[in-house]
TrEMBL record:
This is Diaminopimelate decarboxylase. GO terms for biological process: lysine biosynthetic process via diaminopimelate. Belongs to the Orn/Lys/Arg decarboxylase class-II family. LysA subfamily. The gene is lysA. Its cofactor is pyridoxal 5'-phosphate. It comes from Marinobacter lutaoensis. Homodimer. InterPro entries: Ala_racemase/Decarboxylase_C, DAP_deCOOHase_LysA, De-COase2_C, De-COase2_N, De-COase2_pyr-phos_BS, Orn/DAP/Arg_de-COase, PLP-binding_barrel. Its EC number is 4.1.1.20. One of its GO terms (molecular function) is diaminopimelate decarboxylase activity. The active site is at 343 (proton donor). The modification N6-(pyridoxal phosphate)lysine is found at residue 60. Pyridoxal 5'-phosphate binds at residues 239, 273-276, 371.
């Protein structure tokens, strides 16, 4: 459930008409709902309340400081994949002691920063990364808390670009090799083994692959116990899907309950890293129709948002609902392709959408709170849109619209040529 609903014939974000937001801040614009973010986070936290747990929101899904701050105030932990994300968490008031540091290519300076800040755990993805972390921790005179990300070789049944738990994916340590890698880790003087981690993919719509992965990881934990290695936490990663169209993914409570049943009375702390299921349906992208262009073949609605603002449709062929902000009371629906101003045929946010449109209409692309703004770019030298957070009847500008000056600030021309050369 989310807080983007129609009232008096127009779309509202919580208590604020979306058209009012567009009038004040222009379009395109990302609009988030605080109440929805909180609701989704609490769904996990409450479902896990009977056992030791930590919900580490996956920062990559939406790393706006205000989003992180809303979650930090609820006591959330965070899953980060770079020193940049760590800095965001700290600036947003997050607790480094509740941060897990994931990612397949951590650099030395990032490890150092993580250790200095006191992150809760490093999710290590290879034996060579273990050596690097051991060395960096040794130089700082500390022990690095680690968990190995294992690759359980299960098919998440999701888009190949966001499927991560198969042998052919770059992620994690082959689960069959894991006992040997743990044995090595146990010998390294500057590491402390805390847990086991896995993440098998994103936008999963059934619990079965998670449970397959869990069974394999629990078997590994038993093997490790036999080797004298005690595992204190189990991190199952993120990946729970959301409804974009007609998917029916399990609710966080059903997912958590299924995991808890399989874990029985093991005293493991359970860590989860949900991103999309917290943020996706807590955001919309508001855009305006610039032109309608009907050729003999197709009807194009040219809108002011483009693939640089929201790349999921172009990159994954993702489908996101596109709804009118103020639906027309009369008029006929037609099938429209919603395309942006960028010079690429792949620049569409939706195709064949049945809508009644007039130039100037406002539209909302739903489920845009996760992997939306964070994947945006300046392609075609377009300014990235602002981000707004609605809280009840208040709208807060939590990132202003970029300007051309912002874009140009990091660049320079070559020096003037000397001697006319
Ligand atoms: N933990 C790890 C280690 C991850 O790699 C990810 C996502 C998550 C947690 C969070 O997964 P979630 O709960 O959001 O599914 N850009 C793609 C999604 C990429 C996901 C990458 N990893 C999209 O727009 O669909």
């Amino acid at each position: 459930m989310d807080h983007f609903t129609y009232r008096n014939g127009e779309l509202h974000a919580e208590d604020v008409p979306v058209a009012e937001i567009a009038r004040r801040f222009g379009t395109p614009a990302y609009v988030y709902s605080r109440a929805t973010l909180e609701r989704h986070y609490r769904a996990y936290d409450e479902a896990l309340s009977g056992r030791p747990h930590l919900v580490c929101y996956a920062v990559k899904a939406n790393s706006n400081l205000a989003v992180l701050n809303v979650l930090a105030r609820l006591g959330a932990g965070f899953d980060i994949v770079s020193a940049g994300e760590l800095e965001r968490v700290l600036r947003a008031g997050g607790d480094a002691g509740k941060v897990v540091f994931s990612g397949v290519g951590k650099q030395e300076w990032e490890m150092k920063r993580g250790l200095e800040a006191g992150v809760r755990c490093f999710n290590v993805e290879s034996d060579t990364e273990l050596d690097r972390l051991n060395r960096v921790a040794g130089e700082l005179g500390v022990k690095a808390p680690v968990s190995l990300r294992v690759n359980p070789d299960v098919d998440a049944g999701t888009h190949p670009y966001i499927s991560t738990g198969l042998k052919e994916n770059k992620f994690g340590i082959d689960i069959a090799q894991a006992p040997a890698v743990y044995a090595r880790a146990a010998e390294l003087p500057h590491l402390e083994i805390l847990g086991v981690d896995c993440h098998i993919g994103s936008q999963l719509t059934s619990v079965a692959p998670f449970l397959d992965a869990l069974d394999r990881v629990l078997a590994l934990i038993d093997t490790l116990a036999g080797q004298g290695i005690r595992i204190r936490h189990l991190d199952m990663g993120g990946g729970l899907g959301v409804t974009y169209q007609d998917e029916r993914p399990p609710e966080p409570s059903e997912y958590v309950q299924a995991l808890a049943e399989r874990m029985g009375d093991r005293s493991l702390e359970l860590i989860l890293e949900p991103g999309r299921s917290i943020a996706a349906n807590a955001g919309i992208l508001v855009t305006r129709v610039e032109f309608l262009k009907c050729t003999g073949h197709r009807n194009f609605a040219i809108i002011d948002a483009a693939m640089n603002d929201l790349i999921r449709p172009a990159l994954y062929g993702a489908w996101q609902a596109i709804v009118p902000v103020r639906p027309h009371q009369d008029g006929e629906d037609r099938a429209w392709d919603l395309v942006g101003p960028v010079c690429e045929t792949g620049d569409f946010l939706g195709k064949d959408r049945s809508l009644c449109l007039a130039p100037g209409d406002l539209l909302a692309v739903r489920s845009a709170g996760a992997y939306g703004f964070v994947m945006s770019s300046n392609y075609n030298s377009r300014n990235r849109p602002p981000e707004l957070m609605v809280d009840g009847d208040q709208v807060h500008l939590v990132r202003r619209r970029e300007t051309l000056e912002d874009q140009l600030a990091l660049e320079s021309c070559l020096p003037e040529a000397e001697g006319g050369g």
